[in-house]
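At this stage, I needed to go through a protein sequence along with its fold in token form, as given directly below:
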Amino acid sequence: MAVSIALAVTCFTSLLHKNFSLQSQVTDLQDRLVIANTRLKPCLLDGPLDIGDSVSDNTSHISNRSLKNSALFFSLAILSIPLIFLRYVDCVSRLRRSADSEEVSLNKQLAYRVDVFLSVYPYSKPLVLLLATFLLICVGGLALFGVTDDSFADCLWLSWTYVADSGNHANSVGVGPKLVSVSISFGGMLIFAMMLGLVSDAISEKFDSLRKGRSEVIEKDHTLILGWSDKLGSLLNQLAIANESLGGGNVVVMAERDKEEMESDIAKMEFDFKGTSVICRSGSPLILADLKKVSVSKARAIVVLAEDGNADQSDARALRTVLSLSGVKEGLRGHIVVELSDLDNEVLVKLVGGDLVETVVAHDVIGRLMIQCARQPGLAQIWEDILGFENCEFYIKRWPQLDGLLFEEVLISFPDAIPCGVKVAAYGGKIILNPDDSYVLQEGDEILVIAEDDDTYAPTTLPMVKRSYLPKDFVVPKSPERILFCGWRRDMEDMIMVLDAFLAPGSELWMFNDVPENERDKKLADGGLDFSRLENITLVNREGNAVIRRHLESLPLESFNSILILADESVEDSAIQADSRSLATLLLIRDIQAKRLPYEVTMVSQVHRGSFSQGSWIGEMQQASDKSVIISEILDPRTKNLLSMSKISDYVLSNELVSMALAMVAEDRQINDVLEELFAEEGNEMQIRPADLYLREEEEMNFYEIILRARQRKEIVIGYRLENAERAIMNPPNKDTRRKWSSKDVFVVIAEKE
């Protein structure tokens, strides 16, 4: 059919051109005949006629017309050849292929090659469009040369004007030139339509790439966060506060989410970024190309967030991310902070990452903080102040003017900071917390302090401090305690071992959860717990559901010194569900305790907290909180704010503290060694001490004098909480100002674990 159409078009065009050509020749001959008759009359009188010029002109005209006919036929042949070729190739392919053969036809092979060419080479489409434009101009120029009397160069230029501006064909005269000019204009419109489509696609693709976060980040010395979790909001808030003194910084977040969704979620966070810019990119941390896209080699710190959900899967992905980061050819300028969910996976991640990796085990941090806060109520608020950048935090800096001083003298050298340790150059940069007073600072040593910011403190000349002795020297006796665990965590065996190291002999640990009692010992043993090594605590198992009141009523809730409500392992994948369960358990326990309080206590007690009256149910629960400490593990910060307002729980520990630790280690990796020692079973820890250990009732002293008195117990006082105050003051100002102290005040110290 294609061949027939092409032949019909060719014949019709040839006949049409022949007709116009004959008519033109007749008109031309008539004009020449008139001219010849005019010239013939005088020539008859003068002599014979010279007809050589006429014959020569006629021959030249016939030759030129033949060339134009050839050009017209050649242009038509060029247009017909592709149709004929494609049809012929398809027919030949069917004839050569046998009935049972599975050979692909030549037509499909050709289409495949064209598709590959257009897909592989990025500039193939513009090149094809340019080639099509060139062919149209050339073919159109040949066709115009065949139907007009213009030269070939003029016809090519005229063809280009038809392609560039389709309205130019309106000036064509004659059927042949009009037909050709319309055809060229129609082809030009198709080419410009395709060109506009390519330009539009290129612009749309670029904007789509920018919208979806595929463009490259051109930054350096930025903080890179890989992954997305509920801790991201708190982490960004802490990084913004840390960068405030620098006028703001740059934080790049890359996760396997849509860029617009990430930006929308970050915009909903209710805090001030304080000049810090947050840049979102969509990509996978397991792909090197995506890592290079966020300038991973130029980042000063890389934070790998743990995924919400299964702990083992989250840690496995973190391990693969560390492997990807280790494969960056350009190398890494900054360190890697990896959040892990299981303590058992920490060794493997450090083995893969080497010296570049610092790990923060979120589950382990929360568990250890819960135990410390259960033993010493009020310690959680202190940890929140130390870990967050809003108040005072740890800083390490070199002060050459302090070389040669004793550590006892260094303690009183900073009016706006409190020294806590020394980074000893002779020990390869090891940080020693709470060193001996006789330690002499050497060249290269750095001082670890607690200060408001890294540019708010500096040493001054030694003040005159009066030295005196402690009013009494004794060790705070330990008494057996009874502690209740509500719920079951993955790291239950680790919490039991830590608790055994802290408690006095004869203490009891009650475990109340819905795990069958005959399975608990097996789970604890599989986790690495050796029951024979438990020296100070006795395990008491009770089975039940912590959200069912009658199950809780079977427990002696009023007899426990501390109650820890754990985010249960069965619902830890869902923060909302885990928090709802913990909240229900907390309310039930406080209500049962309030009902069991003696009548005279509920009537006589005059304790008021917040704006709740004692006649209300919350007021009764607040009175019950005076009898025992309840520490609740909350995963969602929004739930934490709700409980903090009601004050029916002594403190709520949430993922916000983990975000603070991640931000602090990201800003200075050396702080991780300090945190690990403070959380460990051995070494130094933060403690709350009664004031009567250091001073007498109504004794007038300044803070420097209290610091030196505490050194007699090898303790470093870092803050205090007055008798009627709700919060402790860390790194107090005006340390040389004298004031009267009460024996009911308490001091926050860094001391060796007892």
